[in-house]
Amino acid sequence: GQHGEASESISGPAVIGTVCSVVLTIAVSVTVCICRCHRRKLLRETSFGSSSSSQSLPNNGRRTDSSSPRSTISDPSKRMSPVSPAIPILPQSFSMPLPQTKTYIKTSSSDTLSIDPGLVTTDYCIDNEVNQRSPRLDAMENKLDQIRERMETVPPPTTLGTLNFSVGYDVHKSAFRVTIHKANDLPIRDPQSGSADPYIKLCLLPDKKHKVKTRVLRRTRNPVFEETFTFFGLECGQLPGISLHFSVLSFDRFSRDHLIGEVTMSLAKVDMSEGEVTMTGEIVGKVTKQQQQQKPSGKGEILVSLCYQPAANRLSVVVLKARNLTGYNLMGPADPFVKLSLLQGDQKLAKKKTHVKRRTTNPVFNESFIFDVPSEGLDDVTVELQVLDHDRVSKNDQIGRLTFGVRAKAPSAVEHWKEVCENPRRQIAKWHDLQGH
What are the tens digits of pLDDT across the range 189-201? Predict the structure, then answer.
């Protein structure tokens, strides 16, 4: 009996020790396995990160095999450690895009523009331009320049084209019909597209009570309308005293539409008893009193919109675009920009400038500027616009200038300024000929 109790007392601690050793062995084995798996995972992630980095960076002209499962780096000092984070590497040379300043303007055929000056940023320095350019971009610009030069060298038209139309009268309905068929050989009114956006207005003289117009046809110098207009309530005996007055215009979404010319045809000798009569009239230009008084300077034209806000003592000046500028240098057409100055008497209060438009004589700016004017109003205020040719080496050459306000001399500028003063809070846009020094 004593021997059995001793064996039980001895076997108890031995069993406990055996169990503890087994559990410890299992724990050590599991820990080792976990460490190995974690290490393999880190090595796998490190290998994938270095392979993707080597494929995204330039390889000095060497061919990179994207099908290989791992990518190695020859320089041991550039190897990534398993615990180091992935660091993004930028290319050695890169260029930031320049800010673009645009004003989105929707207009009708009137002079009023709806412009939100808050959409436009005007603080821009011309000297902070990025000079790095790709060869492909240079090639594209060269092609565009060649197209512009071809358009700019088009001689002024000797004629304004012709208009083809037909007239007829329905005795039973007392209806007079006019069908506008087409126009041919219209002059270029948009130098950038090399065409025009024509439409026709028609009214019956001398009363001018019946006024109609066709639709606008985009980018064509030979529009085909084929539109018929019917005028009711006209007796046959009234037709000999009626004349047809056609106005051929080109639509301009920035300002008032351009008048190409006019056609006037009397119905006194037209016999419509046997049916419709087809006629062709030559389009002739209309010379206004202002055009007779003001001779163009030959330096080009600029489209400017002005708006005076008396409550805020602010003047908004929008430089929209210019055309037919005369600036040229050794590299070809000029690099025009516009410099604006606000003066009170002889004191210069503020100055601003637009972006530079590269190698063009028909730049489109669409930039708005806000000037704080004195509380006295616009009585002693002058706004000067200088169109300059940007030169990186020497002084910028002046192409032309335009002055509004008390120092204005051009009749168009005086009339424009007067209209702005008489119509506050209204945006008014007009074309002006640039003047010399």
Answer: 877 778 899 999 9
For 300-339, b where at least 16 C-beta lie within 10 A, e where not — what string?
Answer: bbbbbbbbbeeeeeebbbbbbbbbebbbeeeeebbbbbbb
Q: What is the 3-state secondary structure (H, E, C) of the chain?
A: CHHHHHHHHHHHHHHHHHHHHHHHHHHHHHHHHHHHHHHHHHHHHHHHHHHHHHHHCCCCCCCCCCCCCCCCCCCHHHCCCCCCCCCCCCCCCCCCCCCCCCCCCECCCCCECECCHHHCCCCCCCCCCCCCCCHHHHHHHHHHHHHHHHHHCCCCCCCCCEEEEEEEEECCCCEEEEEEEEEECCCCCECCCCECCEEEEEEEECCCCCEEECCCCCCCCCCEEEEEEEEECCCHHHHHHCEEEEEEEECCCCCCCEEEEEEEEECCCCCCCCCCEEEEEECECCCCHHHHHCCCCCCCEEEEEEEEECCCCEEEEEEEEEECCCCEECCEECCEEEEEEEEECCEEEEEEECCCCCCCCCCEEEEEEEEECCCCCCCCEEEEEEEEECCCCCCCEEEEEEEEECCCCCHHHHHHHHHHHHCCCCCEEEEEECECC
**How confident is the model over 14-66, as pLDDT tens digits?**
778 888 888 888 988 888 888 888 777 777 765 555 444 444 444 444 444 44
Closest CA to 264 of 316, 208, 323: 208
Alpha-carbon gap, residue 260 to 277, rounded angstroms: 25
* Tokens representing residue 27 in the block: 């724990």
* pTM for the structure as a whole: 0.39
Give the whole-angstrom CA distance, residue 437 versus residue 434.
10
